[in-house]
Amino acid sequence: MGDLALCAAMRGRISRNTRSVAQLFPAYSYERPTPVRLLATPSGATQRLKENMAELNGQFRAFPATILCSSTDIRFGGDVLYYHENGAPRILYETCRLSERHVIQGLSADHARIDADIPNDGPRLLLNSAGSFNYGHWLIDDLPRLEAYFVLRGLHPDETITILLPSFNAHIDAVRERSIRFYLPKEAAYRVVFLARDQIYRFAKIYHVTPCSLEPVAKSPEALLAMRVRLLKKTLPYRWAQAARRVAAWPLNPFSRPGTRLFVDRTPARGRNLVNREAVLAMLAHEGFEVIDPDFLSVRQQMVRFAKARVVVGIMGAAMANTVFCSAGTRVIYLSPDVRWTDPFFWDLAAVCGHRYTALYGTWDTQDASEAMRAFSVPTANLRAAFRDI
């Protein structure tokens, strides 16, 4: 069932305490182009991948608008907003998309308890999704919805806006807070407050935003463009902000010199490491690629590197979400694990951004980890074939 039909079916389940405040981004629809190249083993796997992509493209085509909402007498716990009805908890759809139920922290059996009662003493904006612990999902699914801040600033011109984030760990919490600081004007009157995920908070009133994406097959072009424009305007010295508001005119590379070639490495300790990394690096060096590991770059440095790139090769993972800052027409080549673990997230991202997408599927070299984290190798012959498309 398509997302629009799902929303229609769930209209009767919306909390009586929730109301629409403003539309942040309009409803959207788009088609994902066929990848420039898909290479996989064993024989026949590539055709199955194409058939699967065609099915996803036909099934997931149209998606609803993104809405800023407010809810009263609402609770936050287990990573989601919920309310009580007839003595039972009812989770709000916009903070627990059905495709993500398996990754959210479950509500405590004692869901009726209250650890903190928060009065309505100023505007509070919750910014979260099931994937907020992951930099890539934070960047694509969450950060664009910070546009709600500017709506709330108009509604509450003289008040400090509290931005609420569920806490995960020191590293990703710091990254998210720095992202917010970079996104908002220096003079913005706001504060960031982290919520403990093992606590239950009851809010007299809270603002929250419905999804601007549907994991993993939809991303609002307007949402991503709004984020891209706002961040790159503060980062790069060029004149394109006025025209950039038109979705059809996704900004071209602002640099007059030819763009760089990037290889996005991945720290082996994080899993999904490339077993034949040295052979791949040698080939990339011969082709003039610069090797970067975004784990060691600031948010601003990552944006600048990707905005300048015209070809990006990278191991499939959160850091590759930075391709959202690449210009239309950029070649993106993903080194992906075994075809038994596929993820259309980046194919979909490339479609929204107007990138030329290639995926090279390797083979797992180990079975001693979860499918998403297993080490793998990619045939260098396939990488050489992909270079012919550049």
From TrEMBL:
UniProt subcellular location: Membrane
Task: Provide any one GO MF term from the record.
Answer: glycosyltransferase activity
Q: Which InterPro entries match?
A: Glyco_transf_61_cat, Glycosyltransferase_61
Supply one GO CC term from the record.
Answer: membrane
Start and end of every Glycosyltransferase 61 catalytic domain? 135-333
Q: Name one Pfam family in it.
A: Glyco_transf_61
Q: Which top-level group of life is the source organism from?
A: Bacteria
Keyword Cytoplasm annotated: no
- Please classify the protein's predominant subcellular localization into one broad category: membrane
Q: Which UniProt keywords apply?
A: Glycoprotein, Glycosyltransferase, Membrane, Transferase, Transmembrane, Transmembrane helix
What is the protein's membrane topology class?
Answer: Single-pass membrane protein
The name of this protein is Glycosyltransferase 61 catalytic domain-containing protein
